[in-house]
Amino acid sequence: MSNFILPLNKTVDNLRRDPILDFQAKIRNIDDLIQLTFGEPGFTVDDRIKAVAKVSIDHDRSHYANSQGEINLRRAAVSYFNRHFQLNLKGVNDVLVTQGVSEAINVVFMTILERGDGVIIPEPSYSPYSTSLALAGGVKVPLDTCEHNFKITPELIEKTIDNANIPVKAILINYPANPTGVTYSKEELLAIADTLKKHKIWVISDEIYAALTYSGEHTSLYKIIPEQSILLTGLSKSHAMTGYRIGFIFASSELIEKMLTVHEALAFAVSTLSQDAAFAALTVGEDVPEYALKAYRKRRDRLLKKLTELGFESVNPQGAFYVFTKIPKSFGNNGYKFAVDLANNAKVAVLPGEAFSKNAKNYIRISYASSDSDLDEALRRMTNYIEKGTKY
Ligand code: PLP
């Protein structure tokens, strides 16, 4: 508990700092560090998108935007996501534009949860989910997949619901997944959807990495069970637009209307300039994810090959831009210590697996979103450190 003269909200006061940010703070002062920690795409924003953003400034697009999202952007989103992910969005009323998927997660939790409601969050998972859940008064119902090839199955969901000692209101599924890169085939999703239908729980589907799927087609759960699903996506990863803060929620128009009230209270509207740029991303910049994906695939293959040579055992990522990998046996089984030592000695920053699941203590997550040159230099440093014990 903090020592303030007047009490704070207890939930906030007791919140643990996000483990990713906590680890970053620990290694912050190390010089010449190559960062393979962030989910920050190693591309600049496409010139065609930037040109539109510049015109918006010159045209004084400096006023409050439509709080649900500019009509032209929502129209473009319906058309783009229906075409690319075979969704059946009916129109602009099925869309809410948010400040990234980050805000979208808070909006969804605040809209659907009562204090004490349980939400299944399969782990390893993106750690900020837990903070948003706690702030909305929800309770995490853990489902650890470390012993199950990092994937959920109908059986695991059944078991988790049966064993939960609180009512389960929702499940938050993220695929392709951060941090493991695993994803699901249509058949796997159909089986999962059957179980979710049976139990009548909300399905929050975070598909922010959908455009970065390496093999096969991405299938959305929203397409399979639209009546129970809320689809979250955005432009941070697909179009390297993290700083523009653009997210989308797709759901029935009735539910979107409820969520709009929450979004208006939290943020009112997303920046008008960013929405104009987002419109460009979904129209003239439609091909951006394609060329990014080609580059990421090459980086993934290079990184996996090198890690295997160095004695790591990796989950083969089918999407996103992370490798979740077990550290070589010669380094023991403490991924946190390994990550700290690697940062200090080899000047390469990666994240400890325990930031994503308490059962992944012998893992680290390496992001290969960074530039080719950074990845090359990081691999050279890691090889020297791991094979020869040479410090940077
Ligand atoms: N969901 C997942 C799984 C992520 O990995 C991230 C960012 O790393 C986010 C959501 C947040 O994305 P945004 O930039 O849209 O807020």
Automatic annotation (TrEMBL):
<dbReference type="GO" id="GO:0006520">
    <property type="term" value="P:amino acid metabolic process"/>
</dbReference>
<protein>
    <recommendedName>
        <fullName>Aminotransferase</fullName>
        <ecNumber>2.6.1.-</ecNumber>
    </recommendedName>
</protein>
<dbReference type="GO" id="GO:0008483">
    <property type="term" value="F:transaminase activity"/>
</dbReference>
<keyword id="KW-0663">Pyridoxal phosphate</keyword>
<keyword id="KW-0808">Transferase</keyword>
<dbReference type="InterPro" id="IPR050596">
    <property type="entry name" value="AspAT/PAT-like"/>
</dbReference>
<feature type="domain" description="Aminotransferase class I/classII large">
    <location>
        <begin position="32"/>
        <end position="381"/>
    </location>
</feature>
<comment type="similarity">
    <text>Belongs to the class-I pyridoxal-phosphate-dependent aminotransferase family.</text>
</comment>
<dbReference type="InterPro" id="IPR015424">
    <property type="entry name" value="PyrdxlP-dep_Trfase"/>
</dbReference>
<dbReference type="InterPro" id="IPR015422">
    <property type="entry name" value="PyrdxlP-dep_Trfase_small"/>
</dbReference>
<dbReference type="Pfam" id="PF00155">
    <property type="entry name" value="Aminotran_1_2"/>
</dbReference>
<dbReference type="InterPro" id="IPR004839">
    <property type="entry name" value="Aminotransferase_I/II_large"/>
</dbReference>
<dbReference type="InterPro" id="IPR004838">
    <property type="entry name" value="NHTrfase_class1_PyrdxlP-BS"/>
</dbReference>
<keyword id="KW-0032">Aminotransferase</keyword>
<dbReference type="InterPro" id="IPR015421">
    <property type="entry name" value="PyrdxlP-dep_Trfase_major"/>
</dbReference>
<dbReference type="GO" id="GO:0030170">
    <property type="term" value="F:pyridoxal phosphate binding"/>
</dbReference>
